Amino acid sequence: MWRIEHNATGPVNVTIVRKDKGVIWLLMPRTRHFVTLPFESDKGPTCQRDLTTEQRRERIGTEILQGHHTTVSEVTVREGSEDVTYYEWRAEDVQIPLRLARKDGRWLIDYKNLRITHLSSQLFELPSGYHPIK
């Protein structure tokens, strides 16, 4: 299970993924609503140290990103019937990607304010007072 708190403006501010329950909860704190989606492990989302279906990985350098020493790699993965290439910045201290970008420039995602710590199990449950959107 994992929790992502989104800092970008938009309707969803928190995503809770519960693989054990087979659900994803999208929380909207401003309106105190939530949406329940099915979790399908073959369709994501994922939170893991390595890209699935990785075909090739080539180290291309190092960089300091958000205060972490990172290894920058070009990674090719199999997506359906095609190979797609990404650039990955993996933090050497925690071995988690801090940035992932498609080589063709279509998108880039940064994970910021990363903290590895023990969290209360309550943070992975639906908050009281939230109502479902149907």
Description:
- The chain has 134 residues and is mostly beta strands.
- The protein has one domain: outer membrane lipoprotein receptor (LolB), chain A (Clam), CATH 2.50.20.
- Helices cover 0% and strands 49% of the residues.
- It contains no helices and ten strands.
- It has strands at 2-5, 14-18, 23-28, 33-38, 54-65, 68-79, 82-91, 97-102, 108-110, 131-132.
- The strands form two sheets. It has a five-stranded mixed beta sheet with strand order 1-2-3-4-10, with no helix packed on it. The chain has a five-stranded antiparallel beta sheet with strand order 5-6-7-8-9, with no helix packed on it.
- The model has no long low-confidence stretch (mean pLDDT 86).
Would you summarize the structure shown here?
The protein has 134 residues and is mainly β. The chain contains no helices and ten strands. Strands 1-2-3-4-10 form a five-stranded mixed sheet, with no helix packed on it. The protein has a five-stranded antiparallel sheet with strand order 5-6-7-8-9, with no helix packed on it.
What's the helix and strand layout?
Layout: E1 2-5, E2 14-18, E3 23-28, E4 33-38, E5 54-65, E6 68-79, E7 82-91, E8 97-102, E9 108-110, E10 131-132
What is the quaternary state of this protein?
single chain
The strands making up the biggest β-sheet line up spatially as 1-2-3-4-10
Content of β-strand: over 45%
Helix content: under 10%
Number of domains: 1
> What is the name of the CATH topology?
outer membrane lipoprotein receptor (LolB), chain A
CATH level 1 class label: Mainly Beta
At CATH level 2, the architecture is Clam
Structural category is mainly beta
Shape: globular
The major β-sheet equals: 5 strands, mixed
Radius of gyration: 17 Å
Distance between the termini: 24 Å
CATH homology group:
Lipoprotein localisation LolA/LolB/LppX
Q: What's the number of helices?
A: 0
Unreliable runs: none
Tell how many strands the DSSP assignment holds.
10
Mean pLDDT: 86
